[in-house]
Amino acid sequence: MNRRDAMKSMAVLFGSALSVSTLAVFQQGCTRSKDAVVGVFGDEKTQMMAEIGDIIIPETPDSPGAKAIGIGAFMVKMLEDCYSQEDREKVSAALIYLNEKGSFSSASPEERIAAVSDLDSKVYGKDESLDEGLGRGYKVIKELTLFGYFSSEAGATQALRYELVPGRFEGCVDLEPGQKAWA
Amino acid sequence: MNLNIKANKENTYDAIVVGSGISGGWAAKELCEKGLKTLVLERGRDVKHIKDYPTTNLNPWELDHHGWATNETKENHQIQSRCYAFGEDTQHFWVNDKENPYNEIKPFNWLRGYHVGGRSLMWGRQCYRLSDIDFEANAKDGYGVDWPVRYKDLAPWYEYVEKFAGISGQAEGLPQLPDSHFLPAMEMNCVEKHVAARVKEKFDDRIITIGRAAHATTAINGRGPCQYRNLCSRGCPFGGYFSSNSATLPAAMQTGNMTLRPYSIVTEVIYDKESGKASGVRIMDSETREYTEYYAKIVFLNASTLGTAWILLNSVSDAFPNGLGNGSEQVGHNLMDHHYGVGASGKIEGFGDKYFYGRRPNGIYVPRFRNISEATKRDDYVRGFGYQGGAGRGRGQGGPEGIGADFKMSKTMPSEDWSFGIGSWGEHLPYYENKATLNHDKLDAYGLPTLDIDCEFKENELAMRKDMRQSAMDILEAAGAKDIHSYDSAPPPGHCIHEMGTVRMGRNPKTSVLNGFNQMHEVSNVFVTDGSFMTSSACQNPSLTYMAFTARACDHAVKELKKQNL
């Protein structure tokens, strides 16, 4: 596939979803690696999703952050096995968007947090200028971060409370201050 | 046809039970315990209690996708994956839809598992007796035919099966919902108690009681007690709930009288013209595709409502060109389910300082309160419905927006408020035109005919649904709920997994297939005790009724055998 064809198929994939500058970023990033393909997640994108996940769910005194529980690889597995191609492409679009203002991986931690925070408020603040597909892509990343983290061993047992075998049911107990939710 | 002809003697038993689900398990147990050498035929693989529950002790993080079904799984289970109990942890208990096709003349979800234990492994475990309001309904309003039994015929058999199965619940003394022989009731949570008190105060026609469920709240017959994991449909290593695998089949096995043959697709019941009885069944081994015949004095069909109809319709002979015992031409007809997926939910404030411990595998129940007396009679529909539901406190505070440590912490706290919701289970009238018929053009993976399923909800159900929705909102309002949201998701028939009625009981052989003992009018040594015998659907979850009728039919069959009437 030559570059022009690649650009054309990108445009078909996203419709009008991507701005010219985004396409340009994609074009620059067009290497032979898996990561160059929209909707496919190689090491670079996996790493980037792990960073985003860790920004959403960072390490706190009681429990590790999302990166430490392997959220990047989990997201890729889930995207590949449980999501549609359409959603995978939207996730790619969100990653491309976050990379638009410069390479996410070379940005400072503060810049990365600012970038994710900005996108998060645009998506949930229902910023009309934001492309819907891209917004969906970010929501999938966030949904998988929360689901993957809180159903992980550390998430369920350290960030939350978890018992595989409760052994009994008590329907009405006092909630102690600061008590965590059941996983 | 590859017919494996062995010596008849080798393939001859006293009784054959077709199917090992909730009713087949009971037939196996009762017949074996009464001393009959019994062959239990199951079309799927074997599932041994505990040993064959591969996911039962897995934590969420030990499942590849933390519980989510993959695209590939959904592709193979396009219909099954619509079920609430389907997931990565239970997918092995649901049929592959590609290998087990049927034809939806109208939308119908046929949700099933082909393995030893059938759906008794994944069932919802709710258990409610029918009452004479149900048994008399057809005779009173003229839909369907009269049940050939009344509550007094069945009451001792309800008690009999309850003492073995173990049904937890609270006695309420209601005529429309007779009390079972109960194990200790599970506890309501704070909000459910609060709502129950409000409902009692505001309504004189309805109450909230704890769900009646086949859970061993105390140990019973070597099973349980329930450990409140709420992972039931994976199979329970504690035997905390009733299933064929944990309860009836081990009891049958213990007698030494049971032979269990998995991978056995019964293709027909063999009719012997001379004796006017069934001589046995023909099976296809699903692995070798080889046909074998088995013979017995009596045959119990427990292959499920649609499975049993399929077998009877496929059992054609000169005497029964339309299917075995089908002179009435009722086999396959009068297909019913419960109609559900309509209800309301809302927030209950004021319990922020209360929480719970353990995962109760059960909810609350609002017994039927419509059309049970002159005072409760409706002019817009006949019959009635009950509600199931419960209160819960979720996880996480605040909205979906936000990132970082504070956002994380907010998601680790119990939700600000409790929510309370109820959904209804309504009676579906028996309509002759709601039916399943054989399709000889579209074959399944075994080259066998498939079923055309043509079933719908009609005016009475649709009128009832309006009341179900409104009454749910009324209850939520009485409970003081905030942000009340009502819904009607209108799932198609079959989705409630209470399909029944295709081989109905009745008093008249011209309009029904079975007599009051689940015995075929026309072929006296064939008994049908799965959901297909149901003359009306009532609105209660039906499994307990299948159990009671099965035990009663086994008792009758063995007595008749002893009198040499069969």
From TrEMBL, chain A:
InterPro entries associated with the record: Gluconate_2DH_su3
Source superkingdom: Bacteria
Keyword annotations from UniProtKB, A to Z: Signal
Signal sequence extent: 1-24
Name this polypeptide is given: Gluconate 2-dehydrogenase subunit 3 family protein
Automatic annotation (TrEMBL), chain B:
Residue ranges annotated for the Glucose-methanol-choline oxidoreductase N-terminal domain, each copy included: 107-338
The Glucose-methanol-choline oxidoreductase C-terminal domain, residue ranges: 433-549
Cofactor(s) listed in the protein's UniProt record: FAD
Matching SUPFAM superfamilies: FAD-linked reductases, C-terminal domain, FAD/NAD(P)-binding domain
Keywords: FAD, Flavoprotein, Oxidoreductase
Matches recorded under Pfam families: GMC_oxred_C, GMC_oxred_N
Protein family membership: Belongs to the GMC oxidoreductase family.
Protein name: GMC family oxidoreductase
Organism: Echinicola arenosa
